[in-house]
Amino acid sequence: MKTIIQFFLLSIGLGIFIGLATFWSINSLKINLNFNDAMICLTFYCIVTCLVFYISYLGLKKGPQNFVMHSYAALAVRFISSLFYVLYYAQTHKTYQLSFIFYFMLLFILFIVFEIYILTTKLRHH
Predict the structure, then answer these.
(1) Of 1, 79, 84, 110, which sits most exposed with the smallest number of CB within 10 A?
(2) Among candidates 115, 95, 94, 101, which has minimal Cα distance to 41?
């Protein structure tokens, strides 16, 4: 249970850090990006990262053989939920901002790297 709480706090902290860093870079580079869209996207990735970690953690509790299957299922959940988010964005916006697409992909890559790093270090079977 301690590992789950640490990870949730770490993912929220990372989400805040990534959000502040990207908003600072957006303001300094004068990129036209809607603040509400960026906050919804950042919140989405924080929630999905916590869900992915919990799925992987459940697999680790069931044994090393199940851990691999649960990790692949977690990556599939991230991918499918990201596709649904893109579909949501496409349905709710008449015009697509190129800056938002770059922001979405940047967050996707940063959270995948975070997930892989944390899963390999925190969920290692001792």
Answers:
(1) 1
(2) 101
